[in-house]
Amino acid sequence: MISRAWQPGTLAWHSFIFLLYLFLLAPIIIVFIISFDTRQYLAFPPAELSLGSYIKVLHNPVFIAAFGRSLTLGISVGVGAIVVGVLLAFALTRFQFRGRSVIAFLAVAPFLVPHIVLAVGLMLVLAPLGLLDTYTGIAVAHLGITLPYTVRTVTMSLLAVDPRIEEAARIHGASPWQVFHRITLPLIRPGVLAGGAIAFLISFDEATLSLFLVSTRASTLPTEIYRYLEYATDPQIAALSVILILISLAVVVVLERLIGLRKAL
Length: 265
Hints:
This protein has 265 residues and is mostly helical. Helix content is 75%, strand content 0%. The radius of gyration is 23 Å and the shape is globular.
């Protein structure tokens, strides 16, 4: 009798899923292979394999400085998204007030608008305020596009918390702050951390908004990569891309190990 795993229908389905994943991962696989090439231009397959491109990236002062700025910006946006997202999600799930539905819609509105449209709109808003080409302006812009993710994850965590637990704490004399700090916040911590991590990763890798809102005074790693590609196309870019992919993957894996990211989402 043929094993179920080797039946024609099951085998065809598994083959289809494998080919689909291979198609989706093909660009990353090719970039990974090219990053070890020794030539001074991008080509596939590589002529020889070497770690020279990775060494050059780690010794490139422009990339190192831009990486530090993007890291700082990403952490700041992640923390800001957590603070604002938790307060907004808590208000939307625990209180009834006039205009609640409008605020709830505005909180997820960036989901519905292409980033290039948001970039143009933010550029027109930030320019009169003197925030164009500043880290404050780009932080505000990144906060706007990452906040919906944090609000979403925190809202899902809050909806999973039984309100009777909070009510029991208040009945026993706990103040609203004590209830939130000692009861609610620990229970929604996975959603909070997941939302902050998503905000960090989006801000760290965001290119569209950055290209519209910064030029010379304030630059991030994506904008520096874009400027580099205007004059050179060598395996350094592929190596840097692999490093960024590994950083994003490491953040996801660590959070999955610590809080169970899939459950939080």
